[in-house]
Amino acid sequence: MDEERTEAWWARRAWALLSAVRERAPLVQCITNLVSMDIAANALTAAGASPAMLHCIREIPDFTPRCDAVYINVGALSEDWLPSMRAAASAGRPWVLDPVAVAASSFRMEACLELLALRPAVVRGNASEILALASSSDSSPTFKGVDSSHDSGEALQAAKALARSSGAVVAVSGAVDFITDGEQVISASNGVAMMQKIMATGCAVTALIAAFVGADPSDALAAAACALAIFGLAGEIGMESAKGPASLRMHLIDALYGLDEQTVTSGVKIALLP
Ligand SMILES: Nc1ncnc2c1ncn2[C@@H]1O[C@H](COP(=O)(O)OP(=O)(O)O)[C@@H](O)[C@H]1O
Ligand SMILES: Cc1ncsc1CCOP(=O)(O)O
Ligand SMILES: [Mg+2]
User: Which of 35, 96, 215, 232 is deepest in the core (most CB within 10 A)?
Assistant: First the structure.
């Protein structure tokens, strides 16, 4: 199977998955921080998914089982929301974790480790987040809040170890995104540096990963790699018209909405690393 996963295979897979999102409009429940709600909901809907920002614990038993995927993001974690996160992660739907600033506190680290034990299909973080989560350490001297103080390649071994110990696909974002199930490593090299200057692009791309998993839960590794590459490609196209972070945000969402087969199959840069 691996031998046939050429760059051309990945390009076709990325288009097939984006097409599946557009056709099936997966319902994605998002329990996410308040900063990211707007960009995540807009990225999801531009891609063809159906976002729902529901976090009241009383709604989860009725609503979550009807979702195609669940997205949980601890960016603005609180004692009130953690029970909802636990309940939604335990509802039997495929789900994706964004461990924003996991090293911020022991409360956040313990919450993320507890959620990790509830078997997310995918964990996506920046390099500092994946390094911290893999080592269960909330005491890094280089901690910079929600931003990464490491390059994605520095977290590759940690990502592989975390994938093996948790059973999740682990994605590390950065200039090059790395996606691993603990054995295979995929690189996705789309994107522009200016994406780091738009608040909550990381949160938005994790939401998009959840939509791709919801559209096709059979291969979380492919879903995560293709969602990251497609989001990055939308950033590249958006950058052609952008003057700065605010206009890039708008043009990225427009580009995500307008992607066609030719643009996706010629533009995504996904490769299986040897
Ligand atoms: N230097 C870069 N060059 C190109 N794309 C980048 C770069 N840094 C981040 N990205 C892209 O921006 C998005 C958010 O990633 P990142 O900034 O690592 O997440 P977070 O916001 O959680 O820290 C991802 O799609 C990633 O591929
Ligand atoms: C600023 C901020 N504070 C808590 S969550 C959040 C957004 C983080 O977004 P991202 O992880 O995409 O950088
Ligand atoms: Mg983040």
Answer: 96
